Amino acid sequence: MKLSKEYLHQIIMEQISVVPNIYNVMWLFNEYNKKCFRGELPRPMLNLVHDKKTLGRFTCDFYDDEMENPQIDISDSYEYTEDRLRDVLVHEMIHYYLAYTQQDVYLTHGKKFKAMANYINTNFGMNITETVDVSDMNRVKHGNWFTNMFS
Q1: Which of 85, 86, 97, 150 is least enclosed, having the fewest CB within 10 Å?
Q2: pTM
Q3: Which is nearest to 93 in space by CA: 51, 137, 31?
């Protein structure tokens, strides 16, 4: 039985653990901005946050119907598979795209979000969902030796 390169890549990527850093998040943003959003999204502020409850978050401000200060936060408190990190980031990029194009300035998981996630899942082989179960993800400890003693 001969296995395709795509299938082998998928199996390998499901096993590799990745802790987000600013370089891999920026690379993924640029890569999937081109693939899924035709390169239309200006690069937002990309931040890593030590958040145990939320894997990703998109925020922005609106002044006189103009979007300002777009920001995507990705939690570096977990080890991700490469696919899961991509899916979390693209989830936030959908919120960004819908706000940027003023289709959903309230950043909901409404019909437009679901339609766009379904389109990307179908056409790009992703698994973008509204929420992610973190029970199978390993936690990453942050802080210095003193704070780690008590966490």
Answers
A1: 150
A2: 0.85
A3: 31
Beta-strand pair 66-75/45-49: parallel
Spatial neighbors of 98 by CB under 8 A, at least 6 apart, are 104, 107, 112, 113, 116
Residues in the chain: 151
The model's pLDDT over 37-94, given as tens digits with 9 standing for 90+, comes to 999 999 999 999 999 999 999 999 999 889 999 999 999 999 999 999 999 999 999 9
10 Å CB burial of residue 39 (0-12, 13-18, 19+) is exposed
Mapped onto helix, strand or coil, the DSSP state of residue 75 is strand
What residues contact residue 117 under an 8 Å CB cut-off, 6+ apart? Answer: 91, 94, 128, 129
CA distance to 6, 47, 70, 115, 140, per residue, from 125 (Å): 11, 26, 26, 15, 28
| φ, ψ for residue 51, nearest 5 deg | -115, 125
- Closest-CA residue to 60 (of 104, 125, 4, 15): 104
Domain ranges of the chain: 17-149
